[in-house]
Amino acid sequence: MADRYWILGTGTWDSTSTTNWSASSGGAGGASVPTASDNVFFDANSNVLATAFTVTMANSPRVCNDFTASGLDGTMTLAGSAIGLTVSGSLTFQATNFSATYGGTTTFNATTTGKTITNNGVAFAGRVTFNGVGGAWTLGSALNATSQIITVTNGTFDTSSSGNYSVTAFQFSSSNSNVRTINLNASTVTLSGSGSAWEMPTSTNATLNAGTSTINLSNASATFAGGELSYYNVAFTSTALASPSITGANTFNNLSITGRTTVGIGLLSISANQTINGTLTVSAGTASAFRIFIASNTLGTTRTLTCAAVSFTDTDFRDITIAGAASPASGTRLGDCKGNSNITFGAAKTVYFRRTGTGDWGNSLTGGTWSATSGGALDATQFPLAQDTAVFPAATYPASGSTITINANYNIGTIDMSLRTSNTMTLATGTTAPSIYGNWINGTGITISGTNALTFAGRTTQQITSSAKTFTQAISINNPSGSVTLQDALTTGTTKTTTLTSGTLDLQSYTLSTGLFDSNNSNTRTIAFGTGQISCTGTGTAWTTSTVTGLTTTGTQVVNVTSTGSTAITVSTGALSEANSISYNFTGGTYALTFLGSSGHSARNVDFTGYAGTLGATSSVFIYGNFKVSSGMTLTASGSTMTFGATSGTQQITTNTKTLDFPITFNGVGGTFQLQDALTAGTARGINLTNGTLDLFGQTFTIGGANTNDRFTINAGTKNITFNGGTLVIANSSTIAFNNSNPTNFTTTAGTGTGTISMTGATAKSFQGGGSTFNCTLNQGGAGALTITGSNTFSNITNTVQPASILFTAGTTSTFSNFSLSGTSGNLITIGSVTAASHTLSKASGTVSSDFLSISRSTATGGAGWYAGANSTDGGNNTGWIFTAPPAPSAGNANFLMFF
Amino acid sequence: MTMKIDFSFSSQYGTFSDALHLEDDHAFTDAEIEAMKQQRFDNWVAVITAPPVEETPIEEV
Predict the structure, then answer these.
(1) Which of residues 609-648 of A touch B (CB under 8 A)?
(2) What is the pLDDT of residue B50?
(3) A686 touches chain B (CB under 8 A)
(4) What is the pTM of this model?
(5) Residue A678: φ, ψ to 5°
(6) Is A175 exposed, middle or buried (0-12, 13-18, 19+ CB in 10 A)?
(7) Containing structural domain, residue B18
(8) Distance of residue A595 Cα from the nearest chain B Cα, in angstroms
(9) pLDDT of A198 strictly over 70
(10) Is the pLDDT confidence value at A897 over 50?
(11) What count of other Cβ atoms lies within 10 Å of the Cβ of residue A441?
(12) In a domain, B11, yes or no
């Protein structure tokens, strides 16, 4: 350890220059640059004569053991932009002739006790950090880092039990798990920071000895993150309190909140229970409209304040329980914003607006704004509280044409403007965001203006009567145990969002028209449509219920997306169950639409009639109702499956000639999926029938083209194909083009007319029948050989191309009501077995009348006459086939026919 | 005392459902009430078919 004295006035303190360092006060230069074990001195001999000088630090950080600036006879500036100073010992600044302008962090890193910090009123320009394991620092004077952060990382920070020195900073921080101790003695700590002014959310291994200290938080929006420690007095001292908060379950002696001297309301958000062993004081503001709002940080979640005593004036509470000796608590003009216990509020009252012209909801005017009676005397004590009803008289108060502005985020009970009809009035909220705990009733003479959200935050039923007046604000519903019920149609601006955070939005069968709708959270909430509908008129994310946890919908759930423009729109439905699923109508526009774009998302009826934009690729999604594509829209191909999953009723699918280029699954036990026009699936897309009835309803369902297995697959489940004259065209060629590997509980129904399964692949393809009964015609409709596996039953078998082959699995019996295969001259239909063994064809009665067949390994049986025709070829190993034309009808029969 | 008259209009944009809140002793004729209903529906169609208005950002001073 050596001593180093600064000489020669202005110079640079860097890691190499020895010019300004001497081994003695005023001695010769050239001494080595101080190390962390050397003491540095700045004294009367550090400058030339008594001139001012600047020591500029470079090469961060500069290090020393003790730092002493004392005896200076000229003003010294310790400078260095963003250069830090690490002091391993003690520090002393001279009260006069000294300033510290360097912007880096001053770090005290001693690992032994007994260090002293004496900055003698000289403010640190940069941060101050105490970080030495085993180190201990005691203040020798007030510590001033007014606009900076003081951090205790390791060691013991002590404000001095004898001096009780003050600490002033922007923030005091000690949020870590290191072993450290903070002794506040009887000091006053004043913190000016917004956000986390006192920052100890992680207090592991921290010892806080609060003594009889006072921590003052002067910023209007300071956060006290106490880390569940015990403090003495803590005060929020701003007279314009805005949005301060307390986190952690802390203990205080006294906790006080200063009243406002400016109009408005300050919200103190509390995120954990607190214990106040002395007094919780919320002081009165300048007027009753200058209020403090103490609330849980989570609406609906109670915070308990255990208090020995309280003093409340002009204070609103939400989700607060007062416990301890102060319970039940009372005060002056306390507002009940719901969820409170053990607080005595004044009885709900009705007050009347009493000012005659344009003005504010709350002010400091003599007499205030409100009266206890309609047209009565102004009374400053009648400011409407959250449990009250505020009435605007029919006339005069205010005069027709006036604008009344809700000029703060006030907590308001019921606003009744129903009497304002012929006498008009504008109720403005400007940029404020008031909360409503009662009803909102417009009269027909009302105009609403404002930009920020109106929050309906009650706990019981809240009614909104719009009287056809558009709300220019967003509407937020956060009523965890109650509902917001419409009394008529409600309309908001096209750029505004209606947000359902918790509780029930009950349309009461009326129409809600809103720019956007957002209920993307996990709270318990319900949208009760009744027969009402929600119209989303905006662009962007017009609708989101992406997170559906806790969401219930009732009634005939219908959402209309009404944009007629081209700006992109996203509708994020979430994965609602069938019962909760919502119908969506897209009524116009050419916009790009993201809809059903996330896995698991669902919808009930989907109707694109009028929409002419492009629907982006859908994900693995569910449709529980009708699906109607418009003729003017474009659908994007997707490899993810759209599942039609309705479990009751008949769901209609209308494609308007558009190809559904994504896999499709029908999977709704008890549901029927009915085509309304031809449905063409993408050439490479698989179709699955798992549960429910696929009703072709006389239409053509065309599947596949790419030569991949399982273009149409019957899965395990209870399923049916009803034809009603419709045709299932399977266009691909593959080993298993039609795959009925799960024939259990698989049925087919002919319905009205003759249905067909047409295998049109141009190369070899397979029909895996699974031994089922097909109440339809199986048609060989492509040049590729058709292999039929299983002992199946068909209404008929036909061919629409020739030559072609139809091969049956050896050992199987295929049963037909009709058998209509025939080739033409030179274009034979080949009937054979897949392997060198015979198959059986069975028809119970009547006559098979074919021609131009080439038959081998085929046993024809069942009772019918099997006439292959005169032009057919016997390829051998056949039984039961008659290679002639069928006989002409007998004379008796001819005579019988002639009779008719 | 007021009375409430519910009404609905079906349209290509969905069903519009609303209510008139009138004094019990109102003097409106049936025709006037029907006109009020129609006016509300017309206003609603105008709102939902109007191009969205982009909000002008507030310039920081």
Answers:
(1) 609-610
(2) 79
(3) no
(4) 0.89
(5) -60, 140
(6) middle
(7) 2-48
(8) 18
(9) yes
(10) no
(11) 24
(12) yes
